[in-house]
Amino acid sequence: MKDQAHDLRQRMLEQEQNQAHTIAIFSGKGGVGKSNFALNFGMALSDMNKKVLIFDLDIGMGNIDILLGLQPKQSLSTMLEKKLQISDIIETGPQQLSYVAAGTGLSDFFHLDRSKYDYFVRQLQYVTASYDYIIFDLGAGMTEEHLAFIQAADESIVVTTTEPTSITDAYAAMKRLVVHSDRDDLQLSLLVNRASDGDEGEFAYSKLNAVVTKFLECDLTYQGYMPDDPSIMQAVKQQEPFYTFVPRSKATKQIKKLVESFLNQESDSEPDRKFIKRIRSFFSRKVD
Question: Which UniProt keywords apply (predicted)?
């Protein structure tokens, strides 16, 4: 019995240690290119021999499948409604990228009963042990669901453009997150989309970082910028990721640089994978 208990504890410990690196991507408002960035960032990671899964968590308004030009057979909504295994709803896109479509039938995670919560977390646990990276593409704004996934993720990327209203909305989203977070180790970074060049991206970051540092007392790192490249819109119209649609475009070259930098920074840091523990704790407080 002691040997069996020891083996069980060892397997549980190994599963916790082998958790995927989780990344939550969010924005203060819609229309800033968040999902497009999440998709192509994931594709660039996958192209570097990383096993990547994208969760489209913009329930009712998800568009990862639209950007891919694909029609998923199942979704997160149907998984919970029909008690499907998560392996049954994972779709495969270009570059061997895996994704889970959001669906339309689930309007509020916090209206789920306890059994569905437990089932959902168990399914998440299965995939965290099977992938290198899991990217959560969250809808615009800061709902309770968004707060849960951002707080649980190993790190989060907020996407903004250089427009003053977009920067203001990004700050408002981070403010709500910091005010409601019980974590003192939030890893937040900023991605400036549709910048004319690197200088404009860094200028937008410096303005936002100054306000975040002063009023939120929070560290905001600079993830980088994405150029205002017309090939991105061309790819969207063709329902194909710009990473594969225009492989030599400025946008594709830049996202490769961002991913290379991201992987280099990760190799210099100690992993602290506690996503499942955090998301289970957050959900438990909501339903108890």
Answer: ATP-binding, Cell projection, Cilium, Flagellum, Nucleotide-binding
The domains found in the chain, sorted by start residue, are 20-287 (3.40.50.300)
Inter-residue contact 47 to 65 (CB < 8 Å): no
Q: For 173-227, what is each residue's pLDDT tens digit?
A: 999 999 988 888 888 999 999 999 999 999 999 999 999 999 999 989 999 999 9
Q: In 93-207, where do the E strands start and end?
A: 98-100, 133-137, 155-161, 188-195
Residue 35 has which token pair? 């999902």
What are φ and ψ of residue 138, in 5° steps? -95, 150
Q: What is the mean pLDDT of the chain?
A: 87
3-state DSSP assignment of residue 59: coil
Number of C-beta neighbours around residue 276 at 10 A:
20
Alpha carbon distances (Å) from 196 to 39, 201, 225, 251, 273: 21, 8, 9, 12, 36
Rounded to the nearest 10 degrees, the angle between the axes of helix 164-180 and helix 198-211 is: 40
